[in-house]
Write a structure and sequence with these properties.
- By secondary structure, the protein is α/β, with parallel strands linked by helices.
- The chain contains two helices and eight strands.
- It has a four-stranded mixed β-sheet with strand order 1-4-3-2, covered by helices on one side. The protein has a four-stranded mixed β-sheet with strand order 5-8-7-6, covered by helices on one side.
- Strand 7 and strand 8 form a beta hairpin.
């Protein structure tokens, strides 16, 4: 018996715009959507490597949440995001709690903290 992962199902203002942003801007792929009986795409997901993100459309939602992505080779990811012109809320730096991280806000207002543990 083991727990494998936890994926929150994040509410977003516009599902199509969110999937496009994560795909075109952040380099995610393998997109899927679920369409309800009225033909409306209501839920969707996307992935990059082993990270999977799930979204559900809620046009009235106001994001007030930080999400932490743990990654490998944070310097390369930071450089990639700079090349793509992603506006950072905080630059890459080492924190006293043992993580190197930077953060940005996605198009829904989520604060995405990208982090990697510091080797001692």
């Amino acid at each position: 018996m083991k727990f494998i992962r936890s994926n929150p199902h994040l509410p977003v203002k516009n599902l199509r715009q969110t999937l496009d942003y994560y795909g075109d801007t952040l380099g995610f792929y393998d997109e899927w959507t679920w369409t309800n009986n009225n033909g409306y795409a209501q839920d969707g997901g996307i992935r990059r490597d082993d990270m999977r993100l799930l979204f559900g459309e809620d046009p009235d939602y106001k994001a007030n949440l930080s999400i932490m992505w743990f990654v490998e080779n944070i310097d390369e990811i930071f450089a990639e995001f700079q090349t793509k012109g992603i506006e950072l809320a905080d630059t890459l730096r080492t924190h006293p709690y043992g993580l190197r991280e930077f953060c940005f806000f996605d198009i829904n207002g989520y604060c995405i903290r990208v982090a990697e543990g510091v080797e001692e």
